[in-house]
Automatic annotation (TrEMBL):
<dbReference type="GO" id="GO:0005886">
    <property type="term" value="C:plasma membrane"/>
</dbReference>
<feature type="domain" description="O-acyltransferase WSD1 C-terminal">
    <location>
        <begin position="397"/>
        <end position="540"/>
    </location>
</feature>
<keyword id="KW-0256">Endoplasmic reticulum</keyword>
<dbReference type="GO" id="GO:0005789">
    <property type="term" value="C:endoplasmic reticulum membrane"/>
</dbReference>
<comment type="pathway">
    <text>Glycerolipid metabolism; triacylglycerol biosynthesis.</text>
</comment>
<feature type="compositionally biased region" description="Basic and acidic residues">
    <location>
        <begin position="24"/>
        <end position="52"/>
    </location>
</feature>
<dbReference type="InterPro" id="IPR045034">
    <property type="entry name" value="O-acyltransferase_WSD1-like"/>
</dbReference>
<feature type="domain" description="O-acyltransferase WSD1-like N-terminal">
    <location>
        <begin position="101"/>
        <end position="333"/>
    </location>
</feature>
<dbReference type="InterPro" id="IPR009721">
    <property type="entry name" value="O-acyltransferase_WSD1_C"/>
</dbReference>
<dbReference type="InterPro" id="IPR023213">
    <property type="entry name" value="CAT-like_dom_sf"/>
</dbReference>
<comment type="pathway">
    <text>Lipid metabolism.</text>
</comment>
<dbReference type="GO" id="GO:0019432">
    <property type="term" value="P:triglyceride biosynthetic process"/>
</dbReference>
<dbReference type="Pfam" id="PF06974">
    <property type="entry name" value="WS_DGAT_C"/>
</dbReference>
<keyword id="KW-0808">Transferase</keyword>
<protein>
    <recommendedName>
        <fullName>Diacylglycerol O-acyltransferase</fullName>
    </recommendedName>
</protein>
<dbReference type="InterPro" id="IPR004255">
    <property type="entry name" value="O-acyltransferase_WSD1_N"/>
</dbReference>
<dbReference type="GO" id="GO:0047196">
    <property type="term" value="F:long-chain-alcohol O-fatty-acyltransferase activity"/>
</dbReference>
Amino acid sequence: MDPGATADPTAPSALRKRPISVDTSRRGGDGASREPAARRSERGPSDARPEGEREEESSMAAAARGVELEAGEPMSPAGRLFRETHFNCYIVAAIGLGAAVDLAAARAGLEATLVRHPRFSSTQVKDDVNKHGRPRWVRTTVNLDDHIIVPCLDPAATTANPDQAVEDYLSSLSTAPMDHSRPLWELHVLDFPTSEAASAVVVRMHHSLGDGVSLLSLLIACTRSAADPARLPELPPAPRRAGPVHARPRPPLSAGLVALALWLWSYVVLAWHTVVDVLGFVATAWFLRDPRTPLMAASEGVEFRRKRFVHRTLSLDDVKFVKNAMKCTVNDVLVGVTNAGLSRYYFRKTSDTNNERKKSQKSICVRSALLVNLRKTPGLHALAEMMDSSKSNGAKWGNLIGYIILPFHIAMHNDPLEYIRQGKRIAERKKTSLEAVFTYWSGNLIVKLFGMKVAAALCYGMFTNTTLSFSSMVGPVEKVDFYGHPIVYIAPSVYGHPHALTVHYQSYVNSMKLVLAVDDAQFPDSHQLLDDFAESLRLICQAASTR
């Protein structure tokens, strides 16, 4: 069935039908689709095609070769966790476009890219023979009419307040089911102008398909550079870290004994911080709970309730200005801005208008669950590289993520830059810990020894005892086209986990998109919360300019 095709999830959808089925279960020996000779002759020799199109097809062919799915590849423990009742997680990404949607071009683009990818052309099949067998990915035929959804929305609503119409439609998707007999992704087409874009598409996919790095890398593979449509976009610069998260390069002998001693001491600090963080993580999974605040889920079952997705465009130049002024990283600034924004919201909601009393109060610690990319080579990668199945590949596709608990301190400071200093201290402290590595490998071990239900119960305890989820992703560094449509913004988020508030930052060229996913009933003032974040960044930027 087609979920949530209108703002009213119960209303039927209206699709512009044009049957296109792509059989991905029958493939040639090289992993590519068996294309009729007539179609190949119509298209002409490959040398006549643009370089970008050849790169696109080679990337998808490499993806098909890189994952062995003939007999069905077993799902990873992380992918199975995202199937559990309390973690039935979906990624939803609103993509603003600079032109009206050309549905035929979008269909052709999807046929050439997304439906050739193993995860997006497979269903999740349970092992009915072996009771303890793992679900598997099995290739199937993809009918694009099942995945491209053009909803019938009220023309009066889309004309009077198009931004609200998009927001309401996105919210309706958070309670709409997805048909698990098909590949778990959808493209929703909202072909009307809003305040930011000429049209929009919404990509909804199950989180078991991959983590944020995998899915954003796939999105980039589906786009072209706006400056040169014949080539793929440039990937963002790789982060400074090279190798595993725990790697600490040994100084050369010429650096002296002091440098060698400091290098050895860094491993002692790493071990100590890891022990402390692991004990805190285990305690949180069992009993250690955040104080009750307006930011925390008001009651159990928040993962099943309707979510609202709101976003605001911030200036990446402002973020980088603060970063340079404070000699920190972009992520340090984002942690500090979040600290400041949550503090403004908290003190307004608690109706404490006495500034002196607010500033003298001891800070309130609320904690977030933060996903960490554990690949040996961090950052985004070319799709063909991610689909390489060799064991030495440090950028594999999948859910290669670990959890850490990141604290935020609710407080009022006379100097707005104190939030940045605090954010830098928190981020630097977490970089000297293997908490994320522990949660990833211990989670896999618990699944093997005790089963998925036990692992899910511990993970559920960690989420319900913390306040929010927090994440950030770097996006394309140049303007890109999505199947011929200029992308104006990218606003991804996630729902289905037991938090009432999820904060995500997504960069694109010179902008930073702040995206909030909130419990619709608990946060009726979600746009005011966006204002708090934006005002916090303004004040921090202003303070940095007068240092």
